[in-house]
Amino acid sequence: AQSVAQPEDQVNVAEGNPLTVKCTYSVSGNPYLFWYVQYPNRGLQFLLKYITGDNLVKGSYGFEAEFNKSQTSFHLKKPSALVSDSALYFCAVRGKGSSASKIIFGSGTRLSIRP
Amino acid sequence: DVKVTQSSRYLVKRTGEKVFLECVQDMDHENMFWYRQDPGLGLRLIYFSYDVKMKEKGDIPEGYSVSREKKERFSLILESASTNQTSMYLCASSPAGRGAPRETQYFGPGTRLLVL
What we know:
heterodimer, A: four-stranded antiparallel sheet, globular, B: Immunoglobulin-like, four-stranded antiparallel sheet, 0% helix
């Protein structure tokens, strides 16, 4: 069965410091991996995805994520956090070859950036 | 610009009422989704539709039904609302076909439903 874990409910970072939001997954075969962000009272917005190719994926707003097959992880990173990055972040996974409906979302990590 | 709209941002209903949540997308996407979002549980798929009049149950379909009579519109129906259906409901769409583009879902702003 597919699963995705975001082990931290909340991550607190000072503005200007690097940030990491963790995600690990379990899926049969090769994965498709995603990060979405949700700002207050808004729907989810797509940030980035890993489908194939380079393990380091760059996305919107200066975020990037590294696919690590041996550790089954897809951590979200940014070199220098902004207060405006404060939001709820969701990792998601789907096994290649499975239906589009089989995407699984993590429980979310709330990122708080203090000035 | 890509757009998914939902009929209401906030909704208050009474137990036993029939509730309709509507979602419209203007991107000509084949796939449409209904999720509910609850704290600590992330997003859980209620129903999925991959074409007009076609639907597939998600992980938590009990107490819900859906309708897709037109490609751009996907409705979620709570047949008899209950207090445990109080939640944030999110609609999403994505293109069909092979390759990376179909993997990105576009979400509406959500409907926060309170059932009293």
